Amino acid sequence: MRYLIVLPSLAISVMAVVMLVLVHILSNAAVEYDVKKTLAGGVRVNQKLLAVVEGKLEVPEDFEYKSDNIYFLILGQNGTIISGEYPEEFTVEVPVELTKTQTIKWEREQYLIKDVRIKNAGKELYVLRGVVKKEDIYSSYKSIENISYLSILVVFFVITASGVVLFRQISRIIKNMCQSIENIGQNADISQRLEEDDRIYEIRVLAQANNRMLDRLEQGRM
User: Fold this and answer.
1) Is 118 found in the same domain as 149?
2) Is the alpha carbon torsion for 34, 40, 43, 47 positive or negative?
3) Do residues 162 and 130 share a domain?
4) Going residue by residue through the chain (222 aa), what tens digit of pLDDT does each one get?
5) Is the dihedral of CA 89, 95, 96, 102 positive or negative?
6) Angstrom distance (rounded) from CA 104 to CA 89
7) How many domains does the chain have?
8) How many whole angstroms separate alpha carbon 77 and alpha carbon 85?
9) 210 lies in which domain range?
């Protein structure tokens, strides 16, 4: 009977671990996607603020070089910095890449870089670069991830506790039924009947089946 408690609890524990792993994997994937989307959106918006007139790059005076944890730089030929700056701790030189978002690991941190070409530049290559530290944006998602973990653990403990209570109840009822059947056998008193517990349907059906069998045995003696 002990296995009725141990095996379901073990299965629930395995399910909880699997759910925690899935939440971790999916949350990281979702954060990665959203960080890239936020970075690309910020770069595209700022790209529209820049223009090249008669070969000269014009930058508005109120142009923001940092917004929503994204650092913006304007690069010229060969990736030289015309204006703007990287985050303080980021000192590595990264070549221009216009086809995809780059992920750079530096000082145990991950940085995402998005480059777009400033339009109407003619032969001159002007690039707007957006740089974001993944951890800066990820921190806002950390609380959501922690809430997910906590919710899974709460559900796990509630289900486990409920399961233990239920299985102990079933174990007690079945033990009482076995004791009653044993007493009937020892005393040869088939006039006794098993108690029909209405709380659990299967147990009630089992008790009714045994009582019907005792009815037939009692009738056979008469």
Assistant:
1) no
2) negative
3) no
4) 444 445 566 666 677 677 767 766 776 777 778 788 888 989 999 998 888 877 788 888 889 999 888 999 999 877 889 999 998 888 888 998 988 999 998 888 889 999 998 876 566 678 999 999 887 777 666 666 677 778 777 877 777 777 777 777 777 777 777 777 777 666 766 666 666 666 666 677 777 777 677 677 667 655
5) negative
6) 13
7) 2
8) 16
9) 144-221
Same domain (yes/no): 149, 134: no
Tell which of 138, 169, 203 closes a domain: 138
Q: Which two tokens stand for residue 43?
A: 């770069």
Q: How far apart are CA 81 and CA 133, in angstroms?
A: 19
| Chosen domain end from 103, 138, 173 | 138
Residue 15 DSSP class: H
How far is Cα 25 from Cα 145, in angstroms, rounded to an integer? 11
pTM for the model: 0.57
130 and 175 part of one domain = no
| Residues 32, 130 within the same domain | yes
Half-sphere exposure of 128 (CA within 13 A, CB side): 28
Q: What are 67's strand-pairing partners?
A: 70
**Tokens linked to 55:** 């070969």
Measure CA 75 to chain center.
38
Separation CA 175–CA 170 (nearest Å):
8
Chain center to CA of 171: 36
Q: What is the Cα–Cα distance from 75 to 50, expressed in whole angstroms? A: 12
Which of 142, 140, 139, 133 lies closest to 109, judged by CA? 133
Strand partners, 105: 110
